[in-house]
Every structure is written in C-alpha cells, then in structure tokens.
Write a structure and sequence with these properties.
This protein is mainly α. The longest helix has 27 residues, at about 135-160. It has 7 helices and no strands. The radius of gyration is 17 Å and the shape is globular. About 75% of the residues lie in helices and about 0% in strands.
Length: about 160
C-alpha cells in the first residue's frame, strides 16, 4: 500500500477522498446507533456534511467524463444530495422511520456502490491498495457487488415474510 497516488492527486480529489472515507466510516455509527441521543445527532450531522462534501467535490473530478464534464458517477452525487435533502426534511417533520430508511438506503446504495467504483483499475484508490496488481480491483468489485446483491435479496425475503 502506497499513499503516493493520493498525495500526488489534486486538492479536489484529496478533499473528496477524505470526506468519502469519513462518510464510509461514520455511516454505520449514525444509522445503526440504538440510542437516538446527542451523540447520534452529532455523528449524523458530521456524516451529512461529509456526504455533502463528497457529492459536491465529485463535480470537480472530471477524469472519467463521458458527457461534457460529467460521468455516470455524477448521477450518484445528484441522488446523494437529493437523499440528504429528503432525509433531513423527514426528521424535521418528525418522520423518524422515513428518515432512517432514507439514510440507510443512501449509505448502502450510494456510499458503498460509489466506493466500489473506486476499485476500477487505474483509479487512485485502486493504485493506493493494489499498486502492482491493479486487476485485483475487479475481485473487490465482484465481492462487493455480490454482497450488495445478497443484501438486497435478503431484505426482500425478510420484507416478504413480514407482509
């Protein structure tokens, strides 16, 4: 593992990576904490700010542009910003269940899917972890994709049993 690719990256990419890592790490503490107290609120607000920084800074990253300055990953950024808006609106209106569902969905379907994209060969995260064996990124993407598909199938089975 070498931090050279990260240190050589532009400040926009560095800010994006730091905010994304913070969101990835804090997410489970914010969305699965049993007690909804001041600590939950503080972690949650930090997570929301990290998510906004991640989504907004992504628009400054144009290395994989497909349509003008935008890439398919920017669709996830727009969805993240929208989900944050919706999730915060729910909590301010007192709809705790919808708030929880929105942010759990954002974490699992947004943060983790976007994280998997970073393991594509040639991306900075891939070079950071697999400097000389970049093809291993495909293994990570496959394993992460299988995990997410399994999670979706399991949640659908559980939902079907409850209804």
């Amino acid at each position: 593992m070498s931090f050279a690719p990260f240190l050589a990256a532009s400040p926009t990419i560095q800010i994006h990576a730091i905010a994304a890592t913070l969101a990835l790490v804090l997410g489970p503490f914010a969305i699965y904490r049993d007690r909804r107290d001041a600590l939950h609120k503080w972690i949650g607000y930090i997570w929301v700010i990290a998510m906004l920084c991640t989504a907004l800074s992504s628009f400054g990253i144009r290395a994989y542009a497909v349509i003008g300055p935008f890439s398919p990953i920017h669709i996830l950024s727009c969805l993240a910003i929208w989900s944050i808006w919706v999730g915060m609106r729910y909590i301010y209106r007192g709809n705790i269940r919808a708030h929880r569902k929105t942010f759990q969905s954002l974490y699992w379907n947004g943060v983790l899917v976007a994280a998997l994209f970073n393991f594509l060969p040639g991306r900075i995260v891939n070079r950071l972890f697999f400097n000389d064996a970049r093809e291993i990124g495909w293994v990570v993407i496959g394993a992460g994709g299988a995990f997410l598909v399994g999670r979706i199938l399991l949640s659908r089975q559980l939902f079907a049993r409850l209804t």
